[in-house]
């Protein structure tokens, strides 16, 4: 097991960001429309769920990090470098997603972001190199199917269930 502080730090950042988002969502005006949810409901729900799910992840990752304390220093540096590359990849993909969102619309940009995230993290983590050519092709196909289904499902939830229009 590698001793990588990146996982607990990421969980901590999620906790802080979700608490801040929840606090900020309480400042939204509560405009009640007959039978509909207020504008602050959805941000409160999402930030609350992120906080709720990040707490056990943080506890688990801190325990794993402590248990791996006696590992080889070289392995720790490799894990830390890999973690930094993974963080950098996600940040770069998020910036790219923001830049192409209006140009392509919600479904294509979200599908592209999800696909690149899955494949990019597989490559950066080192698992991609362990796969055979057939397994790589299957992984690319499954990532593409996942990305398209995810984008369409989220689009449907927002536009039909929450009645929040998203760019086509």
What's the layout of helices and strands?
Elements: H1 6-25, H2 41-67, H3 73-104, H4 106-125, H5 133-161
Helix pairs in contact: 1-2, 3-4, 4-5
Verbal overview:
- There is one protein chain.
- This protein is an all-alpha fold and 168 residues long.
- The protein is 76% helix and 0% strand.
- It contains five helices and no strands.
- Helix 1 (6-25) packs antiparallel against helix 2 and helix 4 runs antiparallel to helix 5.
- The longest helix is centred in the middle third of the chain and has 32 residues, at 73-104.
- The relative contact order is 0.11.
- The mean pLDDT is 82.
Keywords:
mainly alpha, flat, 168 residues
Number-wise, the strands total: 0
Radius of gyration: 19 Å
Shape: flat
Give unreliable regions as ranges.
none
Percent helix among the residues?
over 70%
Mean pLDDT: 82
Q: Decide which structural class fits the backbone.
A: mainly alpha
- Count of helical regions: 5
- Please indicate the percent range of residues in DSSP E strands (runs of 2 or more): under 5%
Order of helices and strands: HHHHH
CA distance, first residue to last residue: 44 Å
How would you sum up the major sheet? none
């Amino acid at each position: 097991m590698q001793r990588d502080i990146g996982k607990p730090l990421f969980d901590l950042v999620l906790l802080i960001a979700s608490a801040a988002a929840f606090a900020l969502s309480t400042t939204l005006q509560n405009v009640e429309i007959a039978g509909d949810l207020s504008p602050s409901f959805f941000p409160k729900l999402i930030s609350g769920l992120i906080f709720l799910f990040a707490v056990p992840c943080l506890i688990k990752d801190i325990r794993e990090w402590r248990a791996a304390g006696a590992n080889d220093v070289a392995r720790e540096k490799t894990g830390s470098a890999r973690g930094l590359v993974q963080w950098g990849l996600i940040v770069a993909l998020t910036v790219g997603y923001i830049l192409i969102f209006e140009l392509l619309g919600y479904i294509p940009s979200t599908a592209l972001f999800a696909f690149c995230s899955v494949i990019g993290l597989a490559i950066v983590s080192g698992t991609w190199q362990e796969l055979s050519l057939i397994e790589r092709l299957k992984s690319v196909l499954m990532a593409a199917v996942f990305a398209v289904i995810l984008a369409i499902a989220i689009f449907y939830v927002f536009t039909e269930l929450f009645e929040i229009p998203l760019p086509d």
